[in-house]
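Please check the following for our workbook:

***
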Amino acid sequence: MTDDNKNAYETEAQEAVAGAETPDAAQAADAQAEAPAELDPIEVLKAENAELKDKFLRLAAEMDNLRRRTEREVKDAKTYSAAAFARDMLSVSDNLRRALDAVPAEARAAGEAGFLALVEGVEMTERAMLSALERHGVKKIEPAGQKFDPHFHQAMFEVPNADLPNNTVIQVVQDGYVIGERVLRPAMVGVSKGGPKADAPSATENAG
């Protein structure tokens, strides 16, 4: 074998060895790249702590909302639980008032002691009933002189009056009542018509 052939043979052998080692090196590099990096325990604890803190804050907010909602529902239950009963009692009070209004003034003046005692007894019953309702949050609406408010008043008729602002309540046909912040029964009223456009005080303004 000549020297040239010998050198060529050695070169080919070296290249073959290098080519055989290259895939293994590449695979090792890929495996090292795919291996997960080791996590820092402190960072892991920080992340877990932040997550727990967020969950705690959310839970605390939900509990606070639940407490507020429960308190509001309990308060409303106490305030409005008697609404249906109060409305029925107002009907009884209306009948007492109709009975009293039906007694002529002349009959009162000339009435016997027994008759006058009966009238006074009915009046006392009416006052006691309205007083009991007021202790349970029922209050009378005082609409006279106020601007008509459909939330508190029910217009029954109009009365021409050029001296009062338009839509001013000038007559109360039936008293209205509220319980808490809710209307138990609107006041039935007559309102002015044809006056100036300047507004009369509203029921809301007077309530404030």
